[in-house]
């Protein structure tokens, strides 16, 4: 299901980012930058639950910026189902606090560049997919069968 989940995120988040790049106003862009900065601060402080909630809020704000409530609802529902994955990834992979997660996406949105915004949304989703695969590989490598009784 992990691959299907990320497939769905790509199908939704790329075009939503393109639409948002065309439609976001200055106030909404300021909100995205504030959310992005708050995510980084939360991660630096190891406030992982807060970081994940803020991350969800950022993706929802981008979807809201598309001006399409149906897309916003779809993104919200899809990402609500992903929150546990986001939390586990942040918690177990000990995020590098120097890596800004949304900077390039927010910059593309602020530039009102739909193609770049779609590309950055795709990169963002694929980076996180790779992180999930990294977690799975680690879990598989460390698994030990139960001792025979």
- What gap, in angstroms, lies between the N and C termini? 34 Å
Helix share bin: over 70%
Mean pLDDT: 88
Strand content: under 5%
Largest sheet: none
Individual helix count? 7
The low-confidence runs, each spanning 5 or more residues with pLDDT under 50, are: none
Task: Determine the oligomeric state from the structure.
Answer: single chain
Using DSSP, what is the number of strands?
0
Listing every helix as H and every strand as E from the N terminus to the C terminus, the arrangement reads: HHHHHHH
Decide which structural class fits the backbone. Answer: mainly alpha
Give a short summary of the structure.
The protein is an all-alpha fold and 149 residues long. It is 79% helix and 0% strand.
What does this structure look like?
With 149 residues, the chain is mainly α. 79% of the residues lie in helices and 0% in strands. The protein contains seven helices and no strands. The termini are far apart.
Features:
single chain; 149 residues; mainly alpha
Layout: helices, strands, pairs:
Elements (H helix, E strand, L loop, with lengths): L1 H22 L2 H19 L3 H18 L3 H12 L2 H10 L10 H8 L3 H29 L7
């Amino acid at each position: 299901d992990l691959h299907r989940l990320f497939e769905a995120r790509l199908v939704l988040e790329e075009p939503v980012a393109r639409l948002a790049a065309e439609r976001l106003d200055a106030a909404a862009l300021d909100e995205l930058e504030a959310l992005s900065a708050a995510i980084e601060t939360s991660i630096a402080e190891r406030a992982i639950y807060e970081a994940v909630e803020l991350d969800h809020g950022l993706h929802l704000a981008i979807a809201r910026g598309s001006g399409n409530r149906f897309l916003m609802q779809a993104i919200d529902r899809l990402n609500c189902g992903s929150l546990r994955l986001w939390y586990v990834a942040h918690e177990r992979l000990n995020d590098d606090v120097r890596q800004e997660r949304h900077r390039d996406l927010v910059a593309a949105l602020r530039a009102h560049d739909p193609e770049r915004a779609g590309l950055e949304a795709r990169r963002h989703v694929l980076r996180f997919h790779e992180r999930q695969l990294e977690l799975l590989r680690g879990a598989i490598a460390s698994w030990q069968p139960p001792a025979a009784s």
